[in-house]
Design brief:
Elements (H helix, E strand, L loop, with lengths): L12 H10 L14 H13 L1
Helix pairs in contact: 1-2
């Protein structure tokens, strides 16, 4: 199953990542700019650790 959870900036990554994991995602494929990488890694780590 594929879900577009961020919608090109429509949803903040924290909300979108959490939604994906709550919906059963085992991984996230996320397109981002270079300045977004570190923040998104930290968000993903926190979401998958819960």
């Amino acid at each position: 199953m594929e879900l577009e959870v961020l919608g090109a900036g429509r949803t903040h990554p924290k909300d979108g990542f959490q939604f994906a994991v709550d919906s059963g995602a085992d991984f996230l494929a996320v397109g981002m700019f270079d300045f977004q990488v570190l923040e998104n890694i930290e968000i993903a780590k926190s979401v998958f650790q819960t």
